Amino acid sequence: MSDALHAGASQRLGSASAEHYDELPYPNLVHGRSHPRTTGAMAVLYGLDAPPVETARVLDLGTAAGANLIAMAAELPKARFVGVDVSPRQIEAGRQMARDLGLDNLNLVCASFEELPEVEALGGPFDYVICHGVFSWVPPALRKVILDLVTRVLSPRGVAYISYNTYPGWHFGNIVRELMLRETDPQMPALERVLAARRALERHVEASEDKSLRRALLVAERELLSDHTDSYLFHEYLTPDHHPLWFSDFVAAAAEAGLSYVTDALPGIVLGATQAANLAEVLRDVHDPIAVQSAIDQHLNNRFRRSLLVRAGAHPALTLSPATLSRLHVRIPRDHFLVRDGGRRTADAEGPDADFGEMRVKNRRGALVPLAPPMVPVLERLRTASPGTLPWSELVDFADADARFVSGSLVGLVFGEVLEVSLTPVTCATHLPERPNVPALNRYQARHGDPIASRLFASEGVGDVGAAILALCDGTRSPGEIRDAVVVARGVTPERVEQLMRVFVERGIFLAE
Q1: Structural domain boundaries enclosing 49
Q2: Distance CA 407, CA 409 (A)
Q3: Is residue 118 assigned to a domain?
Q4: What pLDDT band is residue 174 in, cutting at 50, 70 and 90?
Q5: I need a labelling partner for 249 at 20 to 30 A (CA). Which of 169, 262, 277, 451 fits?
Q6: For strand 343-345 and strand 338-340, is the pairing parallel, antiparallel, or unpaired?
């Protein structure tokens, strides 16, 4: 599921747009890179004193039914959360879910952005502000309202996250969007219109000449949409308002509102040096960070960003200070394995004094990134805690190398998308527990057929059998008892249940024992 899915798409001028969103709302998803533990960590990497997450005040603009915020509120009971959306239907659905879960640190407000009360009455100022999937889907006048609102409610050390669609990537997408808008009836029911839009695209693909540029564009867009839900197509391609931006225009508008750009929540599109070799060479002599970002968008044909902002006057700059970075926690995804000479290396393949030779590690894009020899045991240590985190300072102390070198290497691996950083520890089971347990939120999601919010703050579709397993994971049953109960209830094989439980460990769903 793409991070571009925007749960806040209902926040529009007027009730008609709210009704458009309510007709086919998005699934109840979380958006991992919007979490304060991620946005705060990225701010710390740039030398900023991001507020502590555990006691933060968080505002979500365009919260829809609040799934993203509710998952945070369930995880962080001492923090305070406020979500705002213009859709009464969505807000009431979120309030009901919060009541069912007994959450008392969450307030969902039904209002347009222009109607919000004063900051103090709303519960602010706010340490973290989230605006996911709203900015490109509202009229330009409302974009200015959003930026001014963020400036008004953000605390002095606060960090704001705003996602939006970008050019040049959406130049291609807009061709298909215009095709769908012209060849479907806006009065049709939502699902019928989506089906008609998909059929229109297919007709144009079939009518295009082989090897033509037009056919290549249409096929690429068809493949992209095949991975997305009907609600995504409805709100991306058939919405009345869709206004992608050039990155430099977004930064200029933010500056005019009194906000400074820090970085992107996705570190892989930030530094020129971590791009593919040909692009890295093009960017080698470009030193202005905004120019670097703009060039990366151009060369990668980027179509979505998650920008982090702070109040004007801050001076964000990448830091290698071990003292500053000691606030961070680091994890390596389990599928980011280490290899040598083209073969996979496991943690117990060789002794501690072995010559590691030329070692590389897989990153999020599947590329193999070279490792300096002192960093190999550091990553092996991280793998023992995966999918959870270890403290940055622990890794620096563990490495047999200069602290600044280790910090620099870790920073490089974060922006190279090998490692992930968090401002709080991420704790989850590293093996199948004797008594598997998931939070009450996950059992609630399983009962209602919603995707599960993992400890990694990712939405995981688990299916009917997976939901049946998780509904029983309250810490009172053994894996065998859960397996036998699900086999009887669902008529599946024991091997299938055991396989799913192993997958849940890999995805960070089970709580640590």
Answers
A1: 15-167+244-311
A2: 5
A3: yes
A4: very high
A5: 277
A6: antiparallel
What pLDDT, on a 0 to 100 scale, did the predictor assign at position 343? 55
Residue 233 tokens, joined: 């197509």
Nearest residue to 79 (alpha-carbon basis) of 36, 136, 119:
36
- pLDDT band for 356, please (50, 70, 90 cuts): very low
Conformation bin of residue 503: beta by default, left when phi > 0, alpha when psi is -120 to 50: alpha
Tell me which residue has tokens 């979120």: 94
Q: How many structural domains does the chain have?
A: 4
Together in a domain, 99 and 127: yes
| 62 and 149 belong to one structural domain | yes
Residue 95's CB is within 10 A of a number of other CB atoms, namely: 19
- 281 and 332 in a common domain: no
Determine the Cα–Cα distance for residues 410 and 369; give it in Å rounded to an integer.
12
The enclosing domain of 293 has a CATH number of 3.40.50.150
Cβ-defined contacts of 445-448 (< 8 Å, 24+): 445/28, 445/470, 446/470, 446/471, 447/471
Q: What per-residue confidence (pLDDT) applies to 300?
A: 93
Query: Do 73 and 152 belong to one domain?
Result: yes
Pair (285, 387) in one structural domain:
no
pLDDT in tens, 32-78: 999 999 999 999 999 999 999 999 999 999 999 999 999 999 999 99
Q: What is the pLDDT of residues 228-258, one digit of tens each?
A: 889 889 989 998 889 999 999 999 999 999 9
Answer yes or no: is pLDDT of 97 > 70: yes
Q: Judge whether 428 lies within some domain.
A: no
Confidence check: pLDDT of 392 > 70: yes
**145-151 mean pLDDT:** 96
Residue type (1 letter), 316? P
| Per-residue pLDDT at 120 | 84
Domain finish residue from 237, 256, 276: 237
| pLDDT, tens only, 118-139 | 888 888 899 999 999 999 999 9
Q: Can you spell out the DSSP letters for 197-231?
A: HHHHHHHHHHHSPTT-HHHHHHHHHHHHHHTS-HH
Distance of CA 412 to the CA centre of its chain: 20
d(CA 388, CA 383): 9
Specify whether the CB–CB gap between 479 and 112 falls below 8 A. no
- Mean pLDDT of the region 340-361: 59
In a domain, 427, yes or no: no
d(C-alpha 152, C-alpha 125), whole Å: 8
In the three-class reduction of DSSP (H, G, I as helix; E, B as strand; rest coil), residue 161 is classed as strand
In a domain, 430, yes or no: no
H-state helical runs in 276-418: 277-282, 289-300, 322-325, 375-385, 392-398, 403-415
Does residue 163 share a domain with residue 40? yes
Q: How far apart are CA 361 and CA 382, in angstroms?
A: 13
289 and 377 co-located in one domain: no
Q: How confident is the model at residue 442 (pLDDT cuts 50, 70, 90)?
A: very high
